[in-house]
Design goal:
InterPro entries: NTF2-like_dom_sf, Rng_hydr_dOase-bsu
GO molecular function: oxidoreductase activity
Protein name: Ring hydroxylating beta subunit family protein
Keywords: Oxidoreductase
Number of strands: 6
Family: Belongs to the bacterial ring-hydroxylating dioxygenase beta subunit family.
Helix content: 10-25%
Number of helices: 4
Oligomer: single chain
Length: about 160
């Protein structure tokens, strides 16, 4: 018999959900340096094109950031030198449908649905995605080990966004 996965009332799951909600709050407010502090040093931020892939290193991705690349992306978004930043979208995102996929003593993997509403250049748009967060729980506070955003339209042309998903 497979071990029972923790449910939403489990303190580990609650800590992971709280981290995901805090992340969404920081991203919507463009507080990218504070967002970066939510990450484990070896964390990966991935937006694959293929909605089924698990092999991110060997397939084409819209984003495949390790710690160094994530910080470079933050620098571009906060420096004021990028054209996409000058007209950056305002965003409001909602994450729900939390399901624990896996857990062990050190990590918990949580899937959720994200609906992001953005507004830029007098146009409003909606992006939907299945999101998976692998959260490290073995330190003083939870940290994001990996975030995978599977956009529902990932195989279509996606315009430059000027914000983080």
């Amino acid at each position: 018999m497979a071990p029972e996965l923790p449910h939403l009332a489990d303190p580990r799951t609650a800590a992971a959900v709280e981290l995901v909600w805090r992340e969404a709050h920081l991203l919507d407010r463009k507080q990218y340096h504070a967002w970066d502090r939510l990450w484990a040093p070896d964390g990966r931020y991935v937006i694959p094109i293929d909605p089924e892939t698990e092999d991110f290193e060997s397939t084409l991705n819209m984003v495949y950031d390790d710690d160094r690349m994530r910080r470079m992306r933050i620098e571009r978004l906060t420096s004021g030198h990028s054209i996409s930043v000058a007209a950056a979208a305002r965003t409001v995102r909602t994450l729900s449908r939390f399901v624990v996929q896996h857990h062990d003593d050190a990590t918990l993997t949580l899937s959720s649905a994200q609906v992001l509403v953005g507004h830029r250049r007098e146009q409003t748009f909606v992006l939907g995605a299945d999101v998976t967060h692998r959260v490290r729980l073995d330190g003083p506070e939870p940290l994001i080990q990996e975030k995978v955003i599977r956009l529902v339209n990932s195989e279509d042309a996606v315009n430059a966004s000027g914000f983080l998903l």
